[in-house]
Amino acid sequence: MTGPGVSGEEAELREYLREWRRATAKEQSVPAYVVMHDTLLEEICRRKPRFFAELRQIPGIGERKAESYGQLILDALERFRAGARAAQPALKKVAPEDETKRLLAEGRTFEEIAATRKRQVSTVVNLVSTLVERGDLEFQSSWVDKDRRSVIEAASDKLGLEWLKPLKDALPPEITYVEIRLVVARHRWEKDQNKDSISA
Q1: Is 179 helix (H, G, I), strand (E, B) or coil?
Q2: Domain residue extents for the chain
């Protein structure tokens, strides 16, 4: 965040010097404030000294500080003038499960989620099915038509839930693997819940 009267370049310089201070402190195994206090860092950003004499005029830069860090500070400023900038913080990687759940909550279709995540639709459906099976995601009735769901459930009661191919072969051809996979996932979760309530 840039404060009032702080230019974009000044904010960039502040960030760059903070990064330099962190690296220097780590290298020397000292706290960052030993290298440079925030008030001194701000003043250096404001004045942008080019020479040792200018640096020495900044309040907070005594003889020892100038001796220890003066040249390093001037070098850092020179690198900044030459175009060096603070490294961009790495974007936090979002887990595929979390991203998929977020997109579903936004009302996205499997096709849209696949496009957003640059994955095959089948990969998205498999992940969603796994989440449903584990009880980490609620089955949504909009995914599979109610009548088709009943037909798939009836077939899985007869043929079991272990394999999808026998179900696909036994069901009408218009019912897709995607629909079967999703309904079976929900059915497996329900069976697990029943098992748990019986054994409890």
Answers
A1: helix
A2: 8-81, 96-199
The chain-wide mean pLDDT, for the chain, equals: 88
Q: Are 55 and 73 in contact (CB under 8 A)?
A: yes
Q: What are the two backbone dihedrals, phi and then psi, of residue 114, each rounded to the nearest 5 degrees? A: -60, -40
CATH topology classification for 8-81: DNA polymerase; domain 1 (1.10.150)
16: number of Cβ within 10 Å: 19
Please list the alpha-helical segments (H only) found in 82-176.
96-105, 110-117, 121-134, 146-159, 165-170
Rounded CA-CA distance 99/193 in Å is: 26
DSSP state letter for 59: T
Give the model's pLDDT for residue 198. 60
The model's pLDDT over 94-112, given as tens digits with 9 standing for 90+, comes to: 788 888 999 999 999 999 9
pTM of the model: 0.52
> Are 45 and 21 in contact, with CB atoms under 8 Å apart?
no
Find the angle CA(140)-CA(145)-CA(148) to the nearest 5 degrees: 120
